Amino acid sequence: MTVRGGTLWTGRDRASTVNLAAVAVFGLALFVYLRTLLPGPSVGDWAEMQWLPARLAIPHPTGYPLYVLLGKAFSLIPIGSVGFRAELLSAVAAAAAAGTTVLIAVRIGVRPIIAIAAGLALAVSGELWLEATFSEMNGLHLFLVAAVIHRAVVWRAERRDRDLRLGALLAGLSLSNHALAATVVPLVILFVLVDARARLREQPILLAQATGLFVVGLTPYLFIPIRALFGPDAIYGRFLTWDGFSGLLSGADLRSQMHFTSIETLAKAWNAVPAVAAQFRDRSDLAFVVLAGVGAVIQLIRDRWLAMMLGLVVAVNVYFFANYVGDLDHYLLVTWLACAIWLAVALETIVAWLERRLPVVAGAPGLAVVTLVLPIVIGAGNWAVSDQSQNRDGERFADAVFTALPHDAVVLTYWDALTTLGYEHCVEGQRPDVAFRAFDVTARVVCDPVAGTLEEVARARPLFALFAAESELDAVRGTFELIPGPRLAVPYGKRGLDHTATLYRLVPRG
User: Fold this and answer.
1) How many of the other CB atoms lie within 10 Å of CB of 479?
2) What is the mean pLDDT of residues 210-230?
3) CA distances (Å), 171 to each of 167, 229, 249, 347, in order?
4) pLDDT exceeds cutoff 50 at 152
5) Cα 238 to the chain's mean position, in Å?
6) Mean pLDDT to the nearest integer, 285-293
7) pTM
8) DSSP letter at 426?
9) Residue 338: how many CA atoms within 13 Å on its side-chain side?
10) DSSP label at 424?
């Protein structure tokens, strides 16, 4: 039995209350996300992830096989469009991450009502809310990482072998979803191995079992070569070779943007800390940031093992964020999770201190309930910017392009446009007479690739070009005359239409 806030709890009562608290946060978060979900096609990577999983296609590096397989399953749900079903997966995964935060907080001594406040604060933070309303693997990434951390905390408290096994399976699955988990999972595994070393010496078979389950968690990667077997070979054949397969998984095409080998990277990460803190303040609240910092210190005093594990995870997370591209804010989701856990610790400590100082409120739920004000304030402040329910940018962009194209046209274009136009054309059946092409003829976001050189294509069909960066047209200026057409609002690296570009007709010279 446990005494909490003056109330005597049995183990069963406590487990029931904790599970109810986690389910409540999941349900409330999912309700908010569904009310603010993007209603139609997106752009760029977000449009790619709206339809490639439904077609069991292979997306951009690092492949994300678990997300693709789950996306396929969600695409079979008979509600809304294919794009909506992909966004539903994001919403469910993000809500599950918030619910798992509650489980972690209660496990480390936070009462359920305060854990609910921390979980909801994470759910309505600007970053997780944004990821929940667009289709990508980031919400699922946070949920799986949170599940791995939760299982590590449960092992430390209860010392059950099954928790080591389940944690190993979750660790493999998290890596199968997003390679970014490699910046978290090995650290958690290291801390668990150190903590479990005595048990593993007693039962070495347990380490073998956990290793086997970890490998099982990685089996979704088999989807990539299996899918490649079904072709077409021109697009998928390279994934049947080790170089092609490993290059996709390791993000070899993105290496030029990774900078991790010089001493200057440490200084860059350190210098990024104030900007990261300011970002967290802007997308949540100053109280969230301050209390998270206080909670981290309290956790270090109370439980050095957990505090050091979360602190090292945050340090590596910020380091990777700062030295990869530097503006991929969703790469900081794990730091948001750690801050939510520390927020819960700080709020529990403050409420418990006040209860000791003010015996009249001890045992009454009122003081702890006040902590729910924080997520309400954060949610109210973020609603306007996080609400995507009226966002029709993808539809507007596709309609503008389709309206400007004559019958049987072929459009040479770039990634952010190709994904949106490909979704509307291949999934929603818009303009079945047109086709799309990238300079990379192996682009995997078209359903009817056009073969032949651009000159051959232009002799057979009207050929157009649309690029946000005019410099990309230099490759065709020598062989084609560029006849300018309408000026269109276009996407370029972001989630909206933040650039303009001219739609050119390409006419072969001579």
Assistant:
1) 14
2) 96
3) 6, 28, 17, 30
4) yes
5) 27
6) 97
7) 0.94
8) I
9) 25
10) I
